[in-house]
């Protein structure tokens, strides 16, 4: 029945609830398509940060349930491939569409029809609403990576709905 | 992989987040095992109400995705049976354990191992924490019933973890 959409419905409600409680919604999001940097007011930044934190903890928890052999990944790239395939299927019932890297710790994961953006009409007019639908997933990636022993910074950007790029930067240790 | 637990992780985070933002957490929940009535402070009551509201809207949305023939249920009892079986499986991957009614609009749905209570240790010492893990699901049932054309009042009670009873009262029309 409807089990595969349960997560999406719940995510939508969570975003709506956090925005409803936003102490200072301001006149509208002024920033463009950058995930974490968008949201011009303190309240919106806090809501994004709360969503990212929730995603992080869910990602950590999901990471802890991974099969044991997964935890033996040695190559960073293997871990990223795992996220693009197994994690994405577990959460969104589809694989990430592409993964690119500069081989210096920066990875770009592209989803050409990101499920959490699909309910929004395609086009430019809703682009400024996108960041709040990306923060949770940025946290999810960061949390899963953390459980796999990799500290990272994850941001998201949208140039045209519903295409979404997640950038994972792993500082050299 | 971990997709079946995604909802549960997200629900846990949602409860934690709402309680963290509780403006007046007070000295502790003083009420006992009644679902909606527990939570002695205004802040906690508000958080329960927010969770119930989120559950209601998710329940409505799930209800709208039901197969069309479902909407043709004529008997109230059929609708309740449907919730106990199909809705419960969709959300919790298990059926409700029992359904009883007084044939006067009151139904008691019992889950002997309610998944959202399972992470808590069994025993009496955590009983007072239970209501916040039940409010969303009360709303979920009320929302699904609403989509199926039935107005109701749904409360939950726990006598011993993780056994949970949901009471659905349908006012005579």
UniProtKB/TrEMBL annotation, chains A, B:
Subunit structure: Part of the multisubunit transport protein particle (TRAPP) complex. Heterodimer with TRAPPC3. The heterodimer TRAPPC3-TRAPPC6A interacts with TRAPPC2L. Interacts with TRAPPC2L.
InterPro entries the record matches: NO_sig/Golgi_transp_ligand-bd, TRAPP_component, TRAPPC6/Trs33
Protein keywords: Endoplasmic reticulum, ER-Golgi transport, Golgi apparatus, Phosphoprotein, Transport
Family affiliation: Belongs to the TRAPP small subunits family. BET3 subfamily.
Keyword Phosphoprotein among UniProt keywords: yes
Function: May play a role in vesicular transport during the biogenesis of melanosomes.
PANTHER family membership: TRAFFICKING PROTEIN PARTICLE COMPLEX SUBUNIT 6A (PTHR12817:SF2), TRAFFICKING PROTEIN PARTICLE COMPLEX SUBUNIT 6B (PTHR12817)
Location in or out of the cell: Endoplasmic reticulum; Golgi apparatus, cis-Golgi network
Pfam families linked: TRAPP
Record-linked Gene3D superfamilies: Trafficking protein particle complex subunit 3 (3.30.1380.20)
Designated name of the protein: Trafficking protein particle complex subunit 6A
Region (Disordered): 21-44
Gene Ontology terms: cellular component: cis-Golgi network; endoplasmic reticulum; trans-Golgi network; TRAPP complex
GO biological process assignments: endoplasmic reticulum to Golgi vesicle-mediated transport
Keyword presence, Transmembrane: no
């Amino acid at each position: 029945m409807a089990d595969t959409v349960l997560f999406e419905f719940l995510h939508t409600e969570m975003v709506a609830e956090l925005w409803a409680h936003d102490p200072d919604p301001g006149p509208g999001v002024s920033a463009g398509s950058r995930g974490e940097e968008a949201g011009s007011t303190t309240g919106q930044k806090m809501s994004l940060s709360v969503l990212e934190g929730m995603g992080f903890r869910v990602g950590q928890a999901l990471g802890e349930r991974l099969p044991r052999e997964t935890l033996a990944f040695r190559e960073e790239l293997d871990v990223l491939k795992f996220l693009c395939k197994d994690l994405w299927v577990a959460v969104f019932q589809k694989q990430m569409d592409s993964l690119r890297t500069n081989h210096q710790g920066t990875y770009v994961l592209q989803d050409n029809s990101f499920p959490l953006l699909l309910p929004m009409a395609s086009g430019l007019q809703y682009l400024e609403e996108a960041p709040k639908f990306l923060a949770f997933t940025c946290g999810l990636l960061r949390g899963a990576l953390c459980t796999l022993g990799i500290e990272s910074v994850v941001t998201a950007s949208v140039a045209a709905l519903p295409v979404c790029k997640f950038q994972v930067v792993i500082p050299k240790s």
